[in-house]
């Protein structure tokens, strides 16, 4: 009997141990994998001012220098830097080379061409009327006229010489090497958009695509508005350049031949794969200027516009810093400021940041002056 009881007691203990082993995982506490819980705000009854606010979530600040198109806010002059309905002639030029070319076109080429065209038309009418059969039944037998032959050979030579001298000077000005203090802009053509690099300012890159109309955009895309510029000319990212500072323009391409053209700058430079073309210019007036690719480059050749925004050097320096770039001779610019996570205090400004802030005008004031 004792043996049977011992066996039954041992079997019962064994069953209890197996059941405890199976139930052990369910009884495991979840504390090791629990997530931290934010403390609820402490409120003192009767004293609202003593309430402790809840932790603030992480927030990324937006630099005021960057508008929706990645450039400083600036109003667009509808009569400058773009085609104007009903207006004949060249666009108003905002570079010295462009002003020289406009003068050459308006006050030298056009008068000479107009005079020659009117003279030839008059001579044709005179010959038709004077030497028609009714007025001149007996044809002249004259075969040579020394004075006339000298004139119609010498006068065109003098005209061409008079046009060649200023045109050679203009051609030289268009391809004058940039000085050492120039700001380098590298424009890279792609099918079918432009990308830009700033080698002198940290090498950051801007990609510029044409803005579509409201009826053409897809989900998540931004449509063109009136503040962006004209249809087929407005871009989602503008090229920002300083006024009064020489610009070194370098063009190349990643696929086929493109051409970077801004009519208001008197600039048209081919972008050839595997080759670097270079020119220089200086913008004299702040504003927004539009251009296009001027080399047939494929199916969407007409849909890769160029938008350049010219600002003061101080505003340009602020924009470069906002883009994460650097000015020549300055320390590397930090990435855009980010407020610390909940419970952490933001970093205190450094002495370099304070000096930079004192050296440059405030962003709103600079934007207002640039828009004038």
Automatic annotation (TrEMBL):
UniProtKB keywords: Copper, Electron transport, Membrane, Metal-binding, Respiratory chain, Signal, Translocase, Transmembrane, Transmembrane helix, Transport
Free-text remark on how the cofactor is bound: Binds a copper A center.
The keyword Ubl conjugation is annotated on this UniProt entry: no
Domain of life per record: Bacteria
EC number from the UniProt entry: 7.1.1.9
Residues that span the membrane, as ranges: 107-129, 150-171
Cofactor: Cu cation
InterPro entries in the cross-refs: CcO_II, CcO_II-like_C, CcO_II_C, Copper_CuA, Cupredoxin, Cyt_c_oxidase_su2, Cyt_c_oxidase_su2_TM_dom, Cyt_c_oxidase_su2_TM_sf
Record domain Cytochrome oxidase subunit II transmembrane region profile: where: 82-178
Aminoacyl-tRNA synthetase found in the keyword field: no
Signal peptide extent: 1-23
Location relative to the cell: Cell membrane; Membrane
EC top class, as a word: translocase
Reaction catalysis annotation: 4 Fe(II)-[cytochrome c] + O2 + 8 H(+)(in) = 4 Fe(III)-[cytochrome c] + 2 H2O + 4 H(+)(out)
Residue ranges annotated for the Cytochrome oxidase subunit II copper A binding domain, each copy included: 180-322
Membrane topology of the entry: Multi-pass membrane protein
Annotated Pfam families: COX2, COX2_TM
Coiled-coil ranges (or none): none
PROSITE patterns referenced in this protein's UniProt entry, alphabetically: COX2, COX2_CUA, COX2_TM
Protein family according to the UniProt entry: Belongs to the cytochrome c oxidase subunit 2 family.
Function statement: Subunits I and II form the functional core of the enzyme complex. Electrons originating in cytochrome c are transferred via heme a and Cu(A) to the binuclear center formed by heme a3 and Cu(B).
Protein name: Cytochrome c oxidase subunit 2
Organism, as annotated: Sphingomonas psychrolutea
Lineage, opening ranks: Bacteria, Pseudomonadati, Pseudomonadota, Alphaproteobacteria, Sphingomonadales
